[in-house]
Amino acid sequence: MPFDVDTYLKALGHRGPADPTLKTLRSLHHRHLTTFPYDSALNAGRGTALWAGVDIDRDAAFDEIVIGGRGGVCYELNGLFRILLEELGFEVGVFGAGIRQLDGSFGPDLEHVFNHTRLDGALFLVDVGFVGPSYLEPLCVTTEVQRQYGNRFRVVPVDGRHVVERSGRSGIWQAVYRFRDQPRDLAEWQEPSAELADFARALAGAGILVRGRSFGTGQRVLIGKRLLTVDDGHESVRVLTDPAEHERVVAEILRTAAPAESPR
């Protein structure tokens, strides 16, 4: 089915005003994250060409994700949402980010594709394609602390970049990812740098699948067999050693089976 704004809004369950305001953006952002899951399995077999389709076919992606109900990766989910916001009158641009790795380092600046917009003179980060844990509503680029669903966020300038930081109920601040306040062109991903190509090779070699979905007050992130749940700022981690349980959780996140209750 071709891209259609009314069908998109209906899929999101959005019935209020669709004007280009922060209130509308917050509602759409949160609903998008709870409606469409992240699924890195879609990158299986792409090798180093992880970002080859970054300039999405809007109709095909809409038909497969919004109508078909499959998950997506960062550039698909954020690409569709960017088109929706543009159709609604928002002025939207693209950013690239390097995600914090397990050892505390950051990936390449173009590892992640997400959006931004300006409203009332303020710059907001718009990201419905990051598996989390992260912000469920748009994040203003400011060092001031912003609270969302039991979590605190801030955007801190460091060495010419901005770092998005998050703190849950534990009170410990951790980086989510870093980015440059520099609008990007999708062509930058279609001709990747050597650093980005090397990163893609390492990622493909690891073979670890990542799935995630948000719910009303948090997120569930499944990295391989490691399940991280964030709910109202409280975090819990479990390793799913039972294959049947792992399969069930994957089905719940992707909603290929009846969804479970919001986890606690």
SSE order and pairing:
Elements: H1 5-12, H2 22-35, E1 38-39, H3 58-67, H4 74-87, E2 92-99, E3 112-119, E4 122-126, E5 139-140, E6 146-148, E7 151-158, E8 161-167, E9 173-179, H5 187-190, H6 194-206, E10 210-215, E11 218-223, E12 226-231, E13 234-239, H7 243-254
Antiparallel strand pairs: 1-10, 2-3, 2-9, 3-4, 4-5, 6-7, 7-8, 8-9, 10-11, 11-12, 12-13
Helix pairs in contact: 3-4
What is this entry, summarized?
The protein has 264 residues and is of the alpha+beta class. The protein is 28% helix and 28% strand.
Structure, explained:
With 264 residues, the chain is of the alpha+beta class. It has helices spanning 5-12, 22-35, 58-67, 74-87, 187-190, 194-206, 243-254; strands at residues 38-39, 92-99, 112-119, 122-126, 139-140, 146-148, 151-158, 161-167, 173-179, 210-215, 218-223, 226-231, 234-239. The chain has a single domain (5-254), classed as Arylamine N-acetyltransferase fold. It contains seven helices and 13 strands. The strands form two sheets. It has an eight-stranded antiparallel beta sheet, with helices on one face. Strands 1-10-11-12-13 form a five-stranded antiparallel beta sheet. A hairpin with a 2-residue loop joins strand 12 and strand 13. Helix 3 (58-67) packs across helix 4 (74-87). The N and C termini lie far apart (37 Å).
Termini separation comes to 37 Å
The number of strands is 13
Tertiary shape: globular
**If classified by CATH, what would the architecture be?**
2-Layer Sandwich
Look at the helices and sheets and give the structural class: alpha+beta
The major sheet is characterized as:
8 strands, antiparallel
Number of helices: 7
Rounded Rg: 17 Å
Pick out the low-confidence regions.
257-264
- Structural domains: how many: 1
Helix content: 25-40%
CATH topology: Arylamine N-acetyltransferase fold
